[in-house]
C-alpha cells in the first residue's frame, strides 16, 4: 500500500514588502538580502490574519466534500500558537465544517511540526487506509524590526492531504532522523518574537543535514545519482543551497547541474514569501512541482526537514503518475502576482499592530478579502469569520 501526499494547498497574506526596499531602509546593500539570503519579497501578515485563517484558506482550496467526509485525523503543526491550551486545530475543524468524529490536535517542535504530523499520518493511514489525514504547517515568523533576523521573516500556511492512494508523492518507508538539545533558536513563554543565534543555527542545520542524509544512504544503499531533486526547510533560500552544495561538490557535473536547476525551481515561491517555519519545506515541494520543467513520474525526491532545538529528518518520495495534473495548476503563481506591495513604513505599522495581545480587541478586516479572517478578541476568545 502506498501512503503519501494526495493534495497540497497554500495560503499567505495579500501583502508583501520588497526586500531591496527593506535593505535600503536598513542601510544595507540590497544584494545582501537578494543574493546573500536569496530572498526577493516578504509576506506581511495583517492583524486580520493568523495561523488559523491562513490554514483554513490553504485547506479549503484543496478539499472537496468527499475529502472532508473521509478525514479522520487533523494534525496542526505550528510554533506560532494562539493559545497555551486550546489547539488551533479545533478552530480549523469548526471553520472548515469537518465531521466531529475525528482526532484533531496541535503539535510543536519548531519548524519540524508538519513533518511530525506526516509521521503520525503514515501510522494512522496504515491502520485506516480508507481514511484521509489533513496535516497543516502554519506560522508567522517574527524576529523584530531592525534586528539581524528581520530579513528572514514571513508567514503562511501549507495544507497537506495525506491518503493511501496519493496523487502526488508516495513516501518511501525508510527515514533517517537525529535529535539533540541545542540552543540555536527559541521563543520563551511571553515572547512574541523569536530569539536566534543565526550563525550557530546555520552550522547546526548543515550538521544535522549531513548526519541524516548519510544515515539514509547507509540504510538504503542509494547514492546521489538515485535522486532527481532535493528540497529543504528554507528559513531563507540560500540556506538550502548551502546544504545542497555539501553533497554535489564532488559529483559528476551533469548530476550537479541538474540538482542545482531543480533547487532553483524549488525555491521560487519561498524567496517571494519568506519564512513559513513549519510549512517551509512543503512550500518548497510545491514550488518544485510547479516550476520545474523536467520532472517525470517515478523520480525520487529527497526531503530534509529541520526544526531548531533541534530535530532533523531526511526522507524520500516517489512522484506518482498523476502528479502532472497538479503541476499544471497556476493558482499559486497567480495569487502571488496579485498581492499588493506595501512600503517599509506601512510594513512596520502593520507589524506593530499584529503584536497586540489583548483580552478585548476589534480588528478592521474590511480590506482583507481572504475567505477566513480574524475579526477580534472578545472576553479573551478569538473571533473568526468565514467571508
Layout of secondary structure:
Elements: E1 4-11, E2 15-18, H1 19-25, H2 30-34, E3 41-43, H3 51-60, H4 65-70, E4 71-77, H5 88-96, E5 103-107, H6 113-127, E6 132-141, E7 154-163, E8 169-179, E9 185-186, E10 195-196, H7 198-220, E11 229-232, H8 237-248, H9 253-266, H10 280-291, E12 300-307, E13 311-319, H11 323-327, H12 331-337, E14 340-341, H13 344-354, E15 361-362, E16 372-378, E17 381-386
Parallel strand pairs: 2-14, 4-5, 4-6, 11-12
Antiparallel strand pairs: 1-7, 1-8, 2-3, 6-7, 8-13, 9-10, 12-13, 15-16, 16-17
Helix pairs in contact: 3-5, 7-8, 8-9, 9-10
Structural overview:
This protein is α+β, with helices and mostly antiparallel strands. It has two domains: 4-169 and 330-386, Thiolase/Chalcone synthase (Peroxisomal Thiolase, Chain A, domain 1), CATH 3.40.47.10; 171-321, Thiolase/Chalcone synthase (Peroxisomal Thiolase, Chain A, domain 1, 3-Layer(aba) Sandwich). 35% of the residues lie in helices and 26% in strands. The protein contains 13 helices and 17 strands. It has helices at 19-25, 30-34, 51-60, 65-70, 88-96, 113-127, 198-220, 237-248, 253-266, 280-291, 323-327, 331-337, 344-354; strands at residues 4-11, 15-18, 41-43, 71-77, 103-107, 132-141, 154-163, 169-179, 185-186, 195-196, 229-232, 300-307, 311-319, 340-341, 361-362, 372-378, 381-386. The chain has a nine-stranded mixed β-sheet with strand order 5-4-6-7-1-8-13-12-11, sandwiched between helices. Strand 12 (300-307) and strand 13 (311-319) form a beta hairpin. Helix 3 (51-60) packs parallel to helix 5, helix 7 (198-220) packs across helix 8 (237-248) and helix 9 crosses helix 10 (280-291). The chain is globular, with a radius of gyration of 20 Å. The relative contact order is 0.19. The model has no long low-confidence stretch (mean pLDDT 96).
